[in-house]
Specification:
The complex is a heterodimer of chains A (about 80) and B (about 150). Chain A has about 80 residues and is of the alpha+beta class. Chain A has one domain: Beta-grasp domain (Ubiquitin-like (UB roll)), CATH 3.10.20.30. Chain A has two helices and five strands; from the N terminus they run βαβαβββ. Classes of the chains: A alpha+beta (about 80), B alpha+beta (about 150).
């Protein structure tokens, strides 16, 4: 599935989008983040402070994700 | 005007849009790019947003602020893209019958925006370096959930 990065995460990974394979169907957001941390160890220290979204909604870590939509990773925000 | 926009923010348009005869008070908050951050000179900033969620967050925050305070209107717009020192990054316009409610509502709106809006600030410094400012973890992150529980 597609993972999109925003803010500092784009710098950390060096790209704005990656494809993540090998996720079980019905995976929760937390599981996707674990896979992502294994695949991209440079992200590991950021993941506890990252929120997840799909479309215009935030998703909790224990929520199953829709594999047909990108999972969007949002680091701590600094608007204003 | 979209709530998230690459265009320079248009205060006059917001004032025209929100004008009404019942409001005796108008409070405008403007966030402006300043020329320093943590002791370093800043030459400009780049703001990025996750727009599908950011538009929704601002709409809901306007509605929430109107529900929470005795005010008539609340409009919020936030700029994205490259901004120079002195340019507005955010505008909040509140109109109310009385000034106290207007001040309270505008403060609530900007304080809450800083906790919820998926927008990121990247500073460009006068020494040629750049960095993303650290910020507030959004609800749903492990850090935010732990701090709620604590």
């Amino acid at each position: 599935m597609e993972i999109q990065f925003y803010g500092v995460l784009q710098q950390v990974v060096g790209q704005s989008t990656v494809q993540l394979a090998g996720l079980p169907s019905g995976a929760q957001a937390a599981e996707v983040l674990r896979h992502l941390g294994d695949e991209y160890p440079e992200l590991a220290e950021h993941l506890p402070r990252v929120a997840c979204a799909q479309g215009d909604s935030l998703i909790r870590r224990d929520q199953p994700i829709d594999p047909n939509q990108a999972l969007v990773l949002l680091p701590p925000v600094s608007g204003g | 005007m979209n709530r998230i926009t690459e265009q320079p923010l248009d205060l006059e348009a917001l004032l025209r849009e929100t004008a009404n005869d019942a409001s005796g008070a108008l409070v405008v908050f403007s966030g402006t790019v300043r020329d320093h951050h943590e002791g370093k000179g800043v030459s400009g900033m780049r703001y990025t947003a996750y727009e599908p969620l950011a538009e929704k967050v601002l709409l809901e925050l306007e509605q929430e602020t109107i529900a929470k305070f005795p005010i008539h209107t609340c409009r919020i717009v936030h700029r994205v893209g490259n901004l120079a020192v002195g340019e507005d990054s955010v505008l909040i316009v509140v109109r109310s019958a009385h000034r106290g409610d207007g001040f309270d509502a505008a403060r609530y709106a900007i304080d809450t925006l800083k906790e919820r809006l998926p927008v990121w600030k990247q500073d460009f410094y006068t020494d040629g370096s750049e960095s993303y400012q650290d910020g507030t973890p959004l609800p749903g992150s492990q850090a935010a959930d732990n701090s709620e529980k604590g």
